[in-house]
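Figure 6 in text form: structure in, sequence out.
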């Protein structure tokens, strides 16, 4: 069979069944309900034969007396069968969907940062929402109808065989033709469905960007541009959807026309004289039952074609989900432990590139930081400073070696390594939760007083207490109800509360006004006195007290030393000071 996103249909089927297996007992009940439903429907049609012959032709009073009770009993059994099949198949389907989403979300948190660099959040959200729903439709509604109609077909064929095997043979002649049509349609639907899922990712991404960037869009008058861009994305999605609709619209009548041919020939043969050599004539009751069976067969054939489309969409969705789940997680094979974490850090011969064809961002970087030291990284934008600190918590893996307290970070479990590091960056991430929970994020067994103390140290307590519910105030998505400086102070309080031996400050005071920066600088200095600190700062006045300043340009270390030593060199660092402060007393001879 054809493959979808590199996954064959057989492989997808087998893997889907592994998700159904834990709910096999409910699945069996649903199957039994479907078998009963099909048998009851066929039984009602079979009842036509004695109803016409005994009731209308022979006027059998005993038969006429019991027939109302039989009909009521049949519908009661049919109702029970409908409940069993619909409820339990739906229960299995929704549990499978829940399992998918749980696994996808769990896997999402284990994927390397490089995956997020090459995949938009809209694509990921589309997989978790839209693609999973495609599987839900295929694994519950479509599967329920498919199983039910399959057993209905089997039961109807049994009725037809009991009446005339010769006439039934005509139906079997048309089956291969119908299967051929459905096979061609299946290949077409799977391919189009995959493209629809991709286009839905684009729709989600475009909408998400507009929501997140709504202030920029308004400020720069980009409403018309964004509206046009979103319309183009929707048009691509609509075209793919219309291809799917056209395929479905053509397939159903084609299959029904093939079935009608068998029906037409059956009517002709059944009405031949009993003396005819073909011996296909039957009684009026048998003819009514035979015709009703064949007409009833057209409905499941039609449903099969429609359901096949939904199932193929589900297979395409499942293939994309499995492709996501098969993405390699972060490498986490470390087994070493840090018994007495101190915060010594060493970079040795580090080189890094974001891709095989990309230019090197870092080139042969080596330096050491002793426990408690503060190292400042400065240089022009794009020089590799942020990349360098992102290697320490292993957001990326590079060539060379990085050591924490003498242990290669590749030998440490990721959880152990990252437990030693607190990060405050210029792009603060906060969650739609209370202030207190944002400060205590990731920290277990902390008291309310611990949170308050961290807020005091970050000079955040005053503004927090002025919020409507104080520390229990919900701050909105990414802290939208707070100012930039307030968000940054909460992030600093979070880092203070973590009490990690290594601290990374990436433009940590960039969003603060001068007065707030002075207070925060005092708080950070207290924190930095207890930590090994790597500071990235463009505002050079904030790093003059660093033990060492490393100047990075184009991925290489070009200067290293204290503030006084680098100023005496009259090199790049001194040049940056001149440009930033326009200090004419500094003479730069080597800028």
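Output sequence:
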């Amino acid at each position: 069979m054809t493959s979808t996103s590199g996954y064959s249909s057989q492989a997808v089927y087998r893997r889907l069944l592994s998700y159904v297996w834990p709910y096999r007992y409910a699945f069996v009940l649903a199957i039994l309900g479907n078998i009963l439903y099909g048998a009851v429907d066929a039984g009602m049609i079979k009842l036509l034969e004695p109803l016409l012959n005994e009731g209308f032709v022979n006027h059998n009073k005993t038969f006429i007396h019991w027939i109302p009770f039989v009909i009521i009993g049949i519908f009661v059994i049919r109702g029970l069968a409908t409940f069993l099949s619909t409820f339990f198949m739906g229960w299995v389907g929704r549990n499978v969907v829940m399992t998918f989403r749980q696994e996808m979300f769990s896997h999402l948190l284990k994927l390397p940062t490089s995956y997020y660099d090459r995949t938009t959040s809209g694509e990921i959200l589309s997989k978790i929402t839209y693609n999973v729903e495609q599987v839900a439709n295929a694994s519950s509604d479509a599967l329920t109808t498919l199983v039910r109609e399959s057993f209905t077909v089997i039961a109807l064929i049994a009725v037809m065989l009991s009446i005339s095997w010769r006439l039934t043979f005509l139906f079997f002649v048309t089956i291969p033709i119908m299967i051929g049509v459905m096979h061609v349609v299946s290949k077409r639907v799977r391919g189009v469905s995959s493209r629809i899922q991709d286009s839905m990712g684009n729709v989600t991404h475009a909408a998400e960007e507009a929501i997140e960037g709504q202030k920029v869009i308004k400020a720069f008058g980009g409403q018309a541009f964004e509206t046009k861009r979103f319309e183009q994305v929707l048009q691509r999605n609509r075209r793919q959807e219309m291809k799917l609709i056209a395929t479905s619209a053509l397939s159903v009548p084609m299959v029904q026309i093939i079935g009608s041919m068998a029906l037409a020939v059956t009517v002709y043969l059944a009405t031949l004289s009993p003396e005819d050599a073909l011996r296909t004539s039957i009684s009026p009751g048998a003819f009514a039952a035979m015709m009703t069976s064949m007409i009833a067969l057209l409905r499941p054939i039609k449903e099969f074609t429609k359901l096949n489309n939904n199932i193929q969409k589900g297979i395409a969705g499942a293939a994309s989900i499995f492709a996501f789940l098969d993405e390699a997680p972060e490498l986490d094979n470390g087994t070493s432990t840090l018994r007495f974490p101190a915060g010594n850090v060493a970079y040795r011969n580090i080189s890094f590139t974001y891709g095989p064809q990309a230019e090197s961002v870092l080139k042969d970087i080596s330096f050491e930081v002793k426990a408690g030291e503060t190292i400042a990284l400065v240089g022009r934008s794009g020089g590799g400073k942020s990349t360098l600190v992102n290697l320490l918590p292993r957001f990326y893996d590079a060539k060379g070696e990085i050591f924490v307290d003498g242990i290669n970070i590749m030998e440490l479990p990721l959880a152990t390594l990252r437990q030693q590091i607190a990060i405050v960056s210029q792009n603060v991430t906060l969650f739609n939760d209370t202030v207190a929970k944002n400060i205590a994020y990731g920290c277990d067994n902390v008291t309310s007083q611990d949170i308050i103390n961290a807020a005091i140290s970050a000079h955040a307590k005053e503004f927090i207490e002025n919020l409507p519910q104080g520390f229990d105030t919900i701050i909105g998505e990414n802290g939208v109800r707070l100012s930039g400086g307030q968000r940054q102070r909460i992030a600093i309080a979070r880092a203070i509360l973590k009490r990690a031996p290594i601290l990374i400050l990436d433009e940590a005071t960039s969003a603060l006004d001068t007065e707030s920066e002075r207070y925060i600088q005092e708080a950070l200095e207290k924190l930095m006195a207890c930590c090994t600190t790597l500071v990235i700062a463009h505002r050079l006045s904030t790093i003059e007290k660093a033990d060492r300043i490393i100047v990075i340009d184009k991925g290489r270390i070009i200067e290293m030393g204290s503030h006084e030593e680098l100023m005496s060199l009259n090199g790049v660092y001194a040049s940056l000071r001149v440009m930033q402060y326009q200090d004419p007393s500094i003479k730069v001879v080597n800028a």
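Caption detail: The chain is about 60% helix and 10% strand.
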